[in-house]
Specification:
By secondary structure, the protein is mostly helical. The protein has a domain of 58 residues. Helices cover 73% and strands 0% of the residues.
Length: 97
């Protein structure tokens, strides 16, 4: 190898090191880097919380459906409270508010 190349053989690794030291932090702090990661992590946390809340809601609704399918008292309560139905022979009294 010529003497010229032996003298500058260190230049390529040094140049790569300098580029890495400069470019990596710039890329991390770029709007597509660390701030975006943090924003996505926050969004993921919110979505996971919403999913948990929806799972609880679905479970509660499934329990309500099961009660309505198997419990005649629950069906009657809904018919009376929400639909305003009464049994045959009952008298409904309405009072002004």
């Amino acid at each position: 190898m010529p003497r010229f190349f032996q003298g500058i053989a260190w230049l390529l690794p040094f140049t790569l090191l300098v580029c890495v030291v400069v470019v990596v932090p710039l890329r991390m702090l770029d709007e597509q880097g660390l701030p975006r990661y943090r924003a996505l992590r926050t969004e993921l946390y919110k979505v996971q919380k919403a999913n948990q809340r929806m799972r609880r809601e679905v479970r509660d609704l499934q329990q309500t459906v099961q009660r309505l399918r198997s419990d005649p008292v629950a069906v009657e309560r809904i018919a009376r409270d929400e639909l305003g139905m009464i049994r045959e022979g009952e008298i409904l009294f309405q009072f002004p508010r």
